From TrEMBL:
GO terms for cellular component: cytosol. Pfam families: Aldolase_II. Residues 12-188, 232-404 form the Class II aldolase/adducin N-terminal domain. This is Class II aldolase/adducin family protein. SUPFAM superfamilies: AraD/HMP-PK domain-like. It comes from the Bacteria. Keywords: Lyase, Metal-binding. GO terms for molecular function: aldehyde-lyase activity; metal ion binding. The keyword Lyase applies. InterPro entries: Aldolase_class_II_sugar_metab, Aldolase_II/adducin_N, Aldolase_II/adducin_N_sf. One of its GO terms (biological process) is pentose catabolic process.
């Protein structure tokens, strides 16, 4: 399992994050750069003109406080604006610049994505700055970017270029980067099938006010072999979800029933990419493992398990194509693909806020479907084995992707009711 990257050397942290960005298709072989400023004001940065898909720690360049360059490569050509950001914002300790397709799309139409599209994005990204075009690698570019950061922005769209984001450490910068690109993708995909709807600031405040329910701690916790096995299984699915773009750093909860109504669940405020078996929280007799804070959705998972003995695993996440239906209130008609309907049956959606504890919709906890979309918030997937539940998530996201892409070709034509009944009979649904 992955370790907490902030405990690693700056060069190792940079390699970990640039690898994630490249493998997720959010930058190219030659594009993008990452830096970290250490406690001695030395800046560690990716090199110029070296393949981002095969960087090694020894490739990372260190630019000392006095300007001395240590390393076998030249620092990134964009190093000037990294340095400029650190000079105007001492609270920022890491910077990411890349050319992810959705954010580049915003940059070339001279717009910024509205982070009110999903519940947590405004807290993580804040308002988005905008830097006018200047020659890449120039001091002028550094000045306009630094001016935006000086205004208090932590994420900026660079006109006809890409994006640049900062954070108190590299984990925070990447979480901000990934969340903003997710917002941009979701808005773009949603615009292909309908009109995106945005949350009000009051709705977001209501979401943020839902602090994790403080449930009592156990005095002692036992870890028998079957419990440990489930921890590992959860971590593997979280990693797989992140790698495939089905979950992002800032959002996603996975749980598995353990014994009776006791279960294991992912924690709150832990980066999903870096989650380890030690982070997983045991919930037993409605008490939490000592010293750990489970997901703020723990109560929801608990209620689903109590009322649905056939459900043994739950994934609550955000994936871009499914959420494109959630932000546009467009019906995800899985009857367009027989295999999708066999796996998922019909996929309902519920309005934002119906998942809040104070006014929970009974359809979420009592009449659970395999896939349920909460508008502008998340997708809830339930199933028996965790791998099966993950498969449902994959099938649902692939189906949503096909519908979004296919919409440009013409109206989607679903199978008719008679054909659905044939499927029910053949597959005993």
């Amino acid at each position: 399992m992955s370790k907490k990257i902030n405990l690693a050397h700056p060069r190792d942290q940079i390699i970990t994050i640039i690898s994630r960005i490249y493998k997720r298709g959010m930058t190219t072989t030659s594009g993008g750069n990452i830096s970290i400023i250490d406690n001695d004001d030395n800046i560690w940065v990716t090199p110029s003109a070296v393949d981002k898909g095969s960087l090694r720690p020894s490739d990372i360049v260190c630019v000392k406080k006095d300007g001395t360059v240590i390393g076998r490569h030249k620092p990134s050509s964009e190093f000037p604006f990294h340095k400029a950001i650190y000079e105007v914002r001492p609270d920022i300790k890491s910077v990411i610049h890349a050319h992810p397709p959705a954010l580049v799309s915003f940059s070339i139409v001279h717009k910024t994505p509205n982070t009110n599209i999903i519940s947590q994005a405004k807290r993580i990204c804040g308002s988005i700055g905008y830097a006018k075009y200047k020659l890449p690698g120039s001091k002028e570019l550094g000045k306009v970017i630094a001016n935006e950061f000086k205004k208090g922005y932590n994420a900026i769209i660079m006109e006809n270029h890409g994006t640049v984001l900062g954070g108190s450490d590299l984990t925070e910068a990447f979480e901000r980067f990934e969340t903003l690109e997710f917002c941009a993708r979701t808005i773009i995909y949603g615009s292909q099938i309908g009109t995106p709807n945005y949350l009000t600031d009051d709705q977001i405040s209501e979401f943020e006010a839902q602090a994790p329910s403080i449930i009592p701690e156990m005095k002692e916790t036992e870890y028998p072999p079957d419990e440990k096995e489930k921890r590992l299984e959860i971590c593997k699915i979280v990693q797989r979800s992140c790698q495939q773009g089905l979950m992002i750093s800032s959002y996603g909860t996975v749980s598995m029933r353990w014994r009776n109504n006791d279960f294991l669940i992912t924690p709150t405020d832990v980066n999903r990419w870096d989650m380890n078996i030690d982070d997983i929280v045991q919930i037993k007799n409605s008490k939490r493992e000592k010293g750990k804070t489970p997901s703020r959705a723990t109560w929801l998972h608990q209620e689903i398990y109590k009322r649905n003995p056939n459900i043994n695993s739950i994934i609550l996440t955000q994936s871009p194509y499914l959420m494109s239906f959630g932000i546009t209130k467009t019906y995800l008609n899985v009857r367009t693909i027989p295999e999708s309907w066999i796996f998922l049956q019909d996929v309902p959606s519920l309005p934002y806020g119906s998942h809040f504890k104070a006014n929970i919709d009974s359809n979420i906890v009592e009449n659970c479907t395999k896939v349920l979309i909460i508008e502008n918030d998340s997708v809830i997937i339930t199933g028996d084995k965790l791998l099966q539940t993950f498969d449902y998530l994959e099938v649902a996201e692939f189906t949503a992707k096909s519908l979004v892409i296919g919409n440009s070709l013409g109206s989607m034509i679903p199978i008719n009711n008679s054909q659905v009944e044939d499927l029910r009979k053949k597959f005993l649904i």
